[in-house]
Structures are given as structure tokens and as C-alpha cells.
User: Fold these one by one.
Assistant:
Number 1:
Amino acid sequence: MNTLIVGTGEYTTGYVHGQASPSDKGAGVVGLSVFHQRALGQIDRVLMAGTNGTKFPGIRAHLRRVIGERYRGLDTTFESFPADDCGRDTEAYRVAMDRLAPGDCVMVFTPDDTHFTIGLAAVERGLHVLIAKPIVQTVADHRALIDAGDRKGVLVAMEVHKRWDPIYADARDKIRELGDFSHFNAYMSQPKSQLETFRAWAGKSSDISYYLNAHHIDFHNWAVGHRARPVSVSALGATGVATSQGIKTEDTISLAVRWQNTESGSIGTALYTASWIAPKSDVHSQQRFHYMGHTGEIQVDQAHRGYHLATDANGFTSPNPLFMKYLPNDAGAFAGASGYGYLSIAAFIQAAHSVNDGKTQPTDWDRKLATARQTLPVTAILEAGRQSLDAGGAAIPLDGL
């Protein structure tokens, strides 16, 4: 099976604005995971598609330095589209897809507003497709992806690695034992530097709610979606920091969502907050939630797990090796295959193999992966949140879920 990665930015390669990202993902996540899967024999060819071929020499040098020279036996070669000597070509991914065969994989890590067009192009070619959160921005596009995936018999899923975080996964299982849903309050942030990283699309084609709130909305829906449904959304947005940097977008967005427990008819409430103006601190991303059920409550602080590090170079930090372990083992080999950032990629590759081998059908994965069919309420909440912001905070009903 071959794999095409569409998008060559921070999460794929760790390469931003001509250098390694200053975040905790300087070696990327997707590319590193795919290269290791190839070393294990799960993948044959690796292709990457971007929008400007002249960036690829820099990307190749970066990947050789942070991956190829760091981990024993990990090859970072890939086929690039457009070619290294070609300039801007926003349709290069289509040429790359035409070099694949039905049953191969496509992973889409591009600006939010491009997800649907690229994902649909992959599905129509009979390719399994994994799309970064949010999978798409509208319910109409989401339904179209579901229909296309069913017609072509391929997997279509959203990449939300929180599902493979052992603490989040355990909390999800415990939530199912706490009776009806009552309240959920989640917060996720990234530092102000991300405004510059995402300047090309921030406020133009997407916002911080689509980009970050998608995580906790998906987790919440994954935990209670079998017995509750969202019925309305109201949103609030704070401004000032981004606009002072010439970026017309909200700094912090909160979505207030009314849920209804389907059997009892009782009401639950949720507040999902995301921000990209956090100060530099001990973590790149603050991530926490509080869940209240009718018979119990759970609190998780994903950013702080009693593990601290202080160095002259970086000061005081709270590492999270459960996401990605970048340090090699004693033998110099990559040792991050147990991280939930890696597992999210590997699980999709394994599922695609299973479908290709005829062992499972794409619908068999609706309870195991964040498939398009399983995540429709996530898109509905995010789209309604944007509509509410544009309508001054008006409540937007969610119908037909």
C-alpha cells in the first residue's frame, strides 16, 4: 500500500517558514509516523504534495537532519509533487493521486477550507482518506463525503489523536458509566506564535474554533453521542490581539452547546473554548476538561501529568511523551510508536489494510475510528458556532442529526 501526504507544514514535516518549527513538533508528526510505518513494511512508496515545489529541497534537508540523521535506519525519501524545480501549483495533489492505485491511502493536512475538495478527489479515485480535524467545515460537505465513501467502498476518517491518548480513552469509557450527561467544560490553547504560523489562513478561511475546539467536541461526542445529541449552539468571540497583528480573526472562541439525552429527554450543557493567544508557558498547548454526569464527574488536565523538566536552554517545561516521543532509544532507533500522535496514523493504515484484505468493511470502523459517519455532529456544532459568531451570538438550532 502506498501513502500520499497532502500538506507539508508543521504537523506533517515540522518545517515552517524555511526552518524547524519552534513548537514541540519540530520533527513533525505525520511524516515521521509514515516513514516509520514504511520501515515496518506497512507502506511501500511515500508521496508528498504541496503547493510550491521549490520548498521541497529545504524540506528534504530538514527531514534528513531531524529524522534521517537522528534515528537509525529511518529513510526519509519521498516523491514530491510538484517537482522540486516547479513553482506554485495548487493542483499538484491531483497529479500525485493519479500515481496511486485504488486501496492506497491519502492523508490530508492542509488549511481547513481545502479539506473537502482534496478529500473528495481522493475518495473518487478509490483511495482511503484520513483528514485533519476539522474533517470539513459544513454539514453539506460532510454528508457528501459520507455518500462518496459509501459509493466507493473506502475509509473516510478524521484525524483526532486525542482518541488514542490513554487518559482520554479511559475517561471516555468511565463517562459511559456515569448516567445521563449533565455538563462538559473544555479549554484548549496555543501560544501567540501560532498566529504567525497560521497567518496565511487565520481569519480568512477558518478560525481557532474549527482548528482546536474540534478536539474536545469530537471527544465529547465520542463519549456521549450514543445516548445524547446536540440541539443548539451559541458562540462568543474575544478580539484584540490578532487584529493588532493585522490578522482579522477572533483571539478566543467559546461555543455553548445545548445537548439532549435521547432516552430521558433531560438537558445537558457544554462549553468548548479555544484560544491562540496564550503566553509562552511550560507547555505548547493547554488542554483540559471537566465532565459531569448524573452519577459522577471527571476532570482531566492533559497538559500536566506530574512530569517536569528544567534546562538552561528551554527553562521550565511539562513534557508529554505520551503524544510523541522524539528521543531515540539506546540503539539509536525511533521509540515513539506508542505515542498517541503516532497511533492515530498507524491505526488508520492498519484499518485500510484490513479493508483492502477483505477482512472488514469500511462501516465496521464507525465505532473504532473517527469516521465521517461517526463525526457528523462535530461538523454540525463547528459550523453552527461560526454561524452564531457571524450573527452576533444568536442561538443556531441543529436539526436532522
Note: The mean pLDDT is 95.
Number 2:
Amino acid sequence: MATKRVHMIDVTQKQDTERLAIAKGKIKMKPETLELIRRGEITKGDVLTLAQAAGIMAAKETPHLIPLCHPLLLTNVTVEFNLPEDGDFIEITATAKGIGKTGFEMEALVAVAIGALTIYDMCKPVDKSMVIEGIHLAKKSGGKSGVYIARN
């Protein structure tokens, strides 16, 4: 008898609802690297603009990257950055919205991850010690399970 090792969840009977997911993460770096980003002096170009575009594009490609994710109709994706004045990191926040039978958590998480990886790629010539950390679901709403807000 064959066993099913993986399967996509059947969402056929679920109702379409408005859904939202917010994910966060950060990339730690040397303060000098952060200052180069602020001044626009990274050789490859505008780090945050490219990371923002990469995160949005990645969210749209999530079902091609994560094998069992359902293709969803995103109605909006945003990727934003917070650069603390005296910090050594960039906080990344991605929001994914849409109407569907299942949530947009993976799209938001993928947007944060790819945004962070893009920052790493653009800055690695000056700082190979960067660390991507803390990627997590911060909030979600919609669907049968309702609202979730992370405690961290």
C-alpha cells in the first residue's frame, strides 16, 4: 500500500474572504554598511529600491517557489524598510493582501526573505558578515481562523 508523503490541502469548499498577512524580519550588518546604504554609496546601486521590487516580485512567485502553496490572486503587496538611526540592522515588513480561500502568509514571508537576500547580495562586497534573522508572521486576518497577532 502506497502512503501519501505530501499533498496539497483541498480548499475547494472554503469560502473566499478578504485576507491580509504581515511578515517581518531583519538583516543585521555593520553600522558602516548601513551608512553606505543610507548615502546611496553601494556600488551595485539603490539597495532598498531593488530589495523592495525583489520582495514584491517574489511574493507573486510564491507558488512556484514553495511546492504546496496554492496560486493566489494578490490584490496588493508592499515591502517597507525601517533603518534605525543608531542601529546595525534593517527591519523589513511585507504585507500581502487578497481575496481567496486560503491565507497569504507565505507570500508575505517570501517577500521578506527575498528582500533580505537582495540586500545581502547588493552589500556583500563590503560586508560578508551580515545575518538575516527573525523572519516571522507578525499578523494575519481573514478566513475561518480569524485574526492572529504574534507576541514577539
Note: The chain has a mean pLDDT of 94.
Number 3:
Amino acid sequence: MKAVHNFNAGPCVLPQEAIHAVIESLNDFKGTGMSVIEVSHRSKEWDAVMHETEALWKELLHIPDGYRVLFLGGGASLQFLMVPMNFLQHKAAYLETGVWAKKSWKEAKGIGDAVVVASSADTTYNYIPKGYTIPEDADYFHITTNNTIYGTEIREDMVCPVPLIADMSSDIMSRPVDVSKYVLIYGGAQKNVGPAGVTFVIVKEDAIGKVDRYIPTMLNYKTHVDNDSMFNTPPVFSIMMMNETLKWLKRQGGVEAINQRNVKKANLLYEEIDRNPMFVGTAEKDSRSIMNICFVMSPEYKDKEEAFMMLAKERGMVGIKGHRSVGGFRASLYNACPMESVQALVACMQEFEQQNR
């Protein structure tokens, strides 16, 4: 297989150990003589995988008692609707830090009164707002912790006067999280914890069932809690891949160890961006993400953008083109992205600087 440095924003690089383990399950799942994508989701073998996967989540994130981890379909985009459907009774508050945060607020507005308490849209979402007031009469406050398109991240668990809900699609399992400060955390798996096709939901059990509206069966969190995420056939392949990815993460030393590695990777690349006169970081320094590093050519070298893209491609870089809405470059340094890839990108940037002095 061709060796590349995979910086795709998602679906993203996954651990080779996990991929190979799932290949074995595709051929023969736990000695059943069937592939994992053929076996009944009601079998004892699959039931064991579901329980083990939830247990891995609870162990790796130190999730306290009273919470359940659900594995659902529909992506984070469906959660944009499920959250207000299950939690919005009178008013909801949202922090607008990017496209996905704005989309989640839009869905809430379709359910009831949803207000934006602060936004960074004025500067194309290049910072995390500060100094805002969360209305204490809100049913919940919704945040998007990492913004893949713009390279900003909320890296601390805030103290919130109302129930806190977070979309952690692109930074879950990359850093320690105090789950007890949230009533619900959700996200698509296709960044740090698996392939596309499964959505994780960490929900505090006693926080659901409070609204008085009718909630369609499939959109009701209680449905999935009561049925251990198997009200309907779960996305078995994606969950199997998640299971093996979490096992890999545990072998690396868990979330605390991977966070240290992630910080080192991000710091190495940010240091080069700040040092190299050909490049400029786009996110404000106090809002920088350690998952998605976004940068552009310096104004005087703007005409060199395509040339750098060509050199990067020649050096095996994949997925560093910035999102179509902002342009420039983006390197996504998710958990399974090795330090060697970051070092290779830095070397490529230095080589380009030498060529264009």
C-alpha cells in the first residue's frame, strides 16, 4: 500500500492495528463462521461487543455513574434536531463558533425559542467568544467544542449555570473531559473514534424525559437508553471499528497520554507556522485547536499557494487543502496521526521556504 501522510479532516486517519483487527472480523467474527456484517445483532457475540464498547467509553473518559453511552445513526446533524426535541421546553441558548454550531442552532429554532448568546461570525469564526452571559432561564446551553473548518477549540470544561450540552465530534477522546459537567455530549465518530456511520451520545439518564411534547420514537433518547442502542439494527461495522479503535487508544495509555502526544504534534506545527514567513495561522492564538491546524500563505506569497500544494502532494501529504469555504490549508492531527507525519509536513514547509527565498 502506498505510504501517505493523511491529514484529512474526516473521515480521517485511523489506527492500522484497529483496521487490521476489523479485517479479521469481516472474514470471521469471533469464530462464528460469519462476517461481522452478517451476524445477528441479537446474538450473544454481538451483544458482548456492544457492552464492551460502552464500557471502554466509560473507562477511557472516566464517565461517572448515571450516564449511558448510545451508538446511533444519522450523524451529528441528526443530533442537532434530537437535542432540542428532547431538552428544549421554554428556551435554549447557543454559542455560535462555526458552520456546525450555526446549523445546530437553526434546528433548535425550528423546535422553539433558541437564542445565540455570542458569535464569532464577524471575523469568519477565527476565535472563541468570551465575556458573554448565559441566560439562567435557558433549558440548556449548547457549545461546539472544536470547529474543524476554522481551527478553533474550547479546551476546558466550563462551569455553566444551566445544563450544558456539547457537540464534540472532532475532539472527543483527544483530551480529558469532565463528563459530570455535561448532561449530554454527542458527535460523529469519524474523527478520533471510528469511521463514518455511527454517532456517539453520552447522556445523563435523569436529564431526559423532562419535556412535555410528543417525541417521535426514533428521536427519543429514552427509546435508545431502554433498548441498549439496539431499538433497530445498529451500524455494526462502524461500531466494531470503534471498539477496536478504543482498544488501541487504551493501549496507548488512554486519553491522558494521547492528549500529551496531541499537544506536542500541534505545538510543533504551530511553531513552524509562526516562524516561517511564508505562512500565517488563521485562528487567534488563544483559540487554536490542537486537532485542526488552519493556515494560509502570507499576503506577499499568496500566488505561491498552488505551488506549495503541489510540493506537499509530491512529498506524500494528503488532505491539507483548507475547507472550500475558507481556502488555504488545514492539517488535521487526530489521535492516530503520527508525529512522523507532522514532522514531514514541517520539513515540507521548510523546504518550500528555502526554494522561494
Note: Residues 254-355 form a domain with the Aspartate Aminotransferase, domain 1 fold (CATH 3.90.1150.10).
Number 4:
Amino acid sequence: MSDIPVGPGNLEIWLIPTLALRGNSLKENHSGFGGGLFYFTPMMGGFNEISASFGLNAAANLSSGLDPTIPSGGWLFRAVDRAVFQLNPQLSMMADFVLQFDNKNGNPSGTTDSSLGNTWFSIGARPVYMFGKYTGVAVEGGIDVTKAEATGSATRVLGKVTVAGLIRPAADFWARPELRVFATLAGWNGAVNDAGGAGGAAFAGDNAGATFGVQAESWW
């Protein structure tokens, strides 16, 4: 159900039952369900959307597709706040916040505590300033913090900032196609390296890195 008027905005409710039939190839034979609430409010020339989603058993991936890697008892909860503001004709911004708890691996080996799980926190923003109708600059910053369920696992932290010059057909935040020339600087702690690193082989053993490039984005 969508576009349900509530206060100044609209509410959307979704529910996905996931059925696992006997004889399938799941790791464990089980069913599950996923569901969520989305509340959309127009504001400041754009919108703010707050959502909360939950999935249990085979639907702990928040999808109608069966995931054979999720055992019975696996679950996921995710809360998201995302917004886009058109503050004036030249200045716009996107921002988001994510908080997620999950135990998609089921109970850790040797334990019976189903409350143990993974934690993920993420926050970021992208202000865009247009010098004219076609050219502008975007600055994007964000940080991710994760904590795995394994006993004694360290908290992993990664932060990054990107600066990009851009060309697009209008000043609106969503105007596309868009061509960007960007530079990104990122840093992360030792726990990220212990878990396999960030940025692939090019940054193996490092705790910071920089990337430069050209990017094009469009949709239809």
C-alpha cells in the first residue's frame, strides 16, 4: 500500500512473505517474511523520507528471492533517513543516514544467543553549488562504522571526502546527464585492513588513499 495520507506526508507499507517449499535447495528448509514502513514528506524544495524495514529467516535480505546462505533464525533490521533539498536555484543537497542490525548468519558457532549480530552505521551528505546553469561543484563526505558479531572483533571505521567539478543541463539536483571530474580522499583504521582492507590491492596495507577520475551519470 502506498500514498496513504498521514499528517504532512504520505505513508507506504510493504510486506513480502517468502515461502520455502519442501525439497528445495536451501541450507535449511524454512520460510520467512520481510516488511517495512516508508514515510515521505515534501520539504525545502525536495523531500525527506524515513523508513524502517525488517526481514526474518530466508527474507532477511529484504528481498522476495530466497537466499540459501541465511539459516533459520537469521534476521535484519534497517532504519534509513534520506533527504534531498533544493535550498535555492544554485544550492542543493542530498543527505542520508543508515543504521542496521543483523544476525543473518544465525547464532555464532558454540552459542545460543540470538541477540548477537552485526552492526552498521553510515552517514553522509552531498551539497552541490551551481556557478551557472550548466557548471558547478559537488562536495561529498561520509563515514561508515561496522562491528561484526564475532567475539573480540574490532570496530571498523572508514571515512571519505570527494570534490567534483560537474557539467549538466540544468541547475536542479536531479538534472542528468551529468559529467564529473573528481578527486576522492579516504582513510580507514587498522581493523579494516585486518578484515581484508579497503580499495583493493592498490591500497593493501595502507590506512589512507586517493583516487582521481572522470565519471558520467545518466538514466532514462
Note: The radius of gyration is 21 Å.
